[in-house]
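Bump. Still looking for (wild Malaysian banana) hypothetical protein structure tokens.
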Amino acid sequence: MAPRLLLIASLLLLLLLFSLRLGETRRVLESETTSEGRGGRSLLNYTTMGKCRASWTFNLCKRACGTCCERCNCVPPGTYGNYDTCPCYAQMTTRGGQRKCP
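Sorry for the wait, here they are.
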């Protein structure tokens, strides 16, 4: 009987620790999506990589998109277009009037 209770208590303790760790991970991820600090930048860098993955000139796209990300703190979803989700991103243009951000 005692080994059984010990096993059940151990499993409950393990479940409690797992749920606490999961809650902490969720809280960290939520803070990364809203922060403008280091975590926010890493998330934007990840989004930039996704946006440029289909580009013929990956490094140029990554550099331009990274600049736009830092200034606007947002990236439109997908590999092209969807500028309505990030108006700042859409309004940035070159001297020639072309869109600066991919």
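Residues 1-34 form one domain.

Edit: fixed formatting.
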